Request: fold
Amino acid sequence: MNFVPDDKRITEIDMGTKIIGTGSCLPETVVTNDDLSEIMDTSDEWIRTRTGIRERHLAKDETTAGMSAEAARRAMDNAGITAQDIDLIIAGTVTADHVVPSCACEIQAAIGAEHAVAFDINAACSGFMFALNIAHAYLQTGVYKTALIVGAETLSRIMDWNDRSTCVLFGDGAGAVVVQRTDHGGLLAFDQGSDGVRGSVLSCANRTNNNPLAETSRQLEYVHMDGQEVYRFAVTTVPASVIKTVEEAGLTVADIDYFVLHQANARILQAVAKRLKLSEDKFPISLDHCGNISAASVPVLLDEMNRQGLLKPGMKIAMSGFGGGLTWASAVLEW
Ligand code: UT7
Reply:
């Protein structure tokens, strides 16, 4: 999908969207699989062989907005811009610290991006990718020039720590990118979708109605996941979405240097690589030391790759997020 109208009435349609800086921030505390096995009936062997996860960072005092602001500062530093340059802040998160104000508004206040408009979007593990694609749409119309896109979660606060089938999978953290309009390269194509009918396979209920007329209880709920259904969804939807986006960009999967995918399970990455008939070397991994950090996983991995010098100008990168909603979103960009 792209935003180039048939009649070309918009004059800046040739503009692309380029990632010019990345940053990330993880909580200080690292919790290994062995640490978890001391507090629940699980083992390093089960978690590693089923998922590839060795350890995750869990928040003690860190907040979603606090980690986001730090990731944003690092991304701005990497991009060589100041908060004054930012027009737009979009945060993808399902664990904002407050219902209101949004995480994005809290980030705006923390970094002093006084000229920016800021809002959150909820697309679960696809949140960062949805936010990136929304920013791309804004930038292509010429409404804004520089955007800060954040994916951030404190998932440990919405986990049921008595449910070993979910709580061992997830972690906390934040990733951010700065994107800017560019006249060549950048984001070449994107695809995104939702399937609300299947939403119950990965859910977390909000607070129930507490007004005097309501008969419901006040209990908050935690994340509930049908892991096998989500797995099946991921290994069918992600390859299809990636292939569609790559073709939309005028490329083949063989042209892609790296596939930066949502980090839910190493077996999902292996299955996607197999479907695309590609080497697993093209599928970098951070879930081994981060666990699944939902909306934060793609930007945190991208930042790690950027800081390791793996991303070179001209490289073609495919990114994809998938998860609750159900939702999915992919993008192909030239670095
Ligand atoms: O970002 C959102 C996207 N989420 C995902 O992509 C998740 C996709 N799904 C998955 O990654 C996998 O389905 C899981 C890793 C969540 C689970 O793997 P599985 O191979 O589907 O395991 P299972 O749920 O079928 O459970 C197998 C066994 C069960 O025991 P029995 O009934 O066979 O005796 C579970 O009770 O493993 C048991 N089990 C555990 N054992 C030790 C479940 N959790 C644990 C645990 N430690 N933490």
Q: What stands out?
A: The first strand starts at residue 16 and ends at 25. Residues 201 and 228 are 9 Å apart (CA to CA). The radius of gyration is 19 Å.
